[in-house]
Structure prediction request, 307 residues.
Amino acid sequence: PQDVTNTPGEHAIFMIFGLQDGDEALAKVKDLCADFTAVARSMRTRLPDSAISCIMGFGAEAWSKLFPKRGKPKELEVFKEIKGSKYTAVSTPGDIFLHIRAARLDVCLEAATIISSKLHGAVYPIDEVQGFRYFDGRAIIGFVDGTENPEDEARLASAAIGVDDADFAGGSYAFVQKYLHDMNAWNALSTEEQEKAIGRRKFNDVELSDEEKPENAHNAVTNIEDEDGNELKIVRANMAFANPAKGEFGTYFIGYAGKFSTTRKMLENMFIGEPIGNTDRLLDFSTAATGTLFFVPSADLLEELGE
Ligand code: HEM
Prediction:
C-alpha cells in the first residue's frame, strides 16, 4: 500500500486537481505515477526526521481516461451526494488527489511544489488546504480527533482493499470532505453540550457512558457494525485548518477504507440518520463544502501505471 495507515502527522497538504484534455496531459500524469514514490524517498534520505509521506489517488472519471485497459476497482465511482432532510453531503469534482504529510511545513511544501511542477500543464487546481496538528491532536472544535481509529493489524485491514478485489488489493478508497465550522454557534454551547455532540469529554477525551451519550452524538452515529456485530472501521487522518482573518475554521476530513461502502454508511448515518432524522449533532455546527472519492492504488500498482 501507499502510506494510507500513517498517523495524521504534524502538517499536511491536501491538493485536488482536475485533468486537462488531451493525450499529452495523460502522458504527463502517467510519468508522475512512474516516479511518484521517488519524491518522498529522496526527501526521506535528505531529511530523515521529516516523516514525509506522499499519497496519490484518482477520481473515477480520471481513472477511466488514464487507464482504460486496467478495469475499475469495484467501488470506485463519482461520489453520489447524500441528501438528508436537513443537511447534504455534497459531491464536488476532483481527478487527481495528493495527501502530503510531514513533521515540518516546509518539507510538505517542498514535496507539494515538486509534484505540482511535474503535473504542470496537465492539470488545473481545484482545491488546496494546509492542515496542522492542533495541540494534542484535536479538531479545531477542541476535541481530540482520531482516538477510535483501528490499531495494529486492524489498521491495514480497515484501510486497504483485500483479496475480494484482487487486481486492486493493497489499494484504498480515500474519501475527503472540507468542513467549515460555525465557531460562534459552537462556542456558545456549554462544554457539557459540546461533549454530548461528540460523545466524549473535552478535556481528557474519555468516552461518555451509554446513559450519558445521546443517540445523535457524533461517535454514536458513526459507530457501525456488520450483520454479525463486528465493528466496521476506517482509518481517519483529519487535520485542522484555519484562516482566522477570514473567520474560517475547519476540519479536513479524510478517511481511508478498503470498502467505500463502510465510509458511505457512516455518512448516511450522519446526514440522513438511522433511524431517519437522527442526524449527527456535529452537523448543526459543521458544513461540508466539498466531498470527493478517490482510489489510491498500491505503491506497486502506481509504479506499474507509469509504464
Ligand atoms: C470520531 C471529529 C467527520 C467518522 C470522532 C471524534 C471526533 C471527531 C472529535 C471522537 C474521537 C475519535 O474517536 O476520533 C470529527 C469532525 C468531523 C468529523 C470535527 C468533521 C466535521 C467525520 C466523518 C466521518 C467520521 C465525515 C465518517 C465518514 C468517525 C468515526 C469515529 C469518529 C468512525 C469513531 C466512532 C467510534 O467511537 O466508534 N470524530 N469527525 N467523522 N468519527 Fe469523526
In short: The two ends are 18 Å apart (CA to CA).
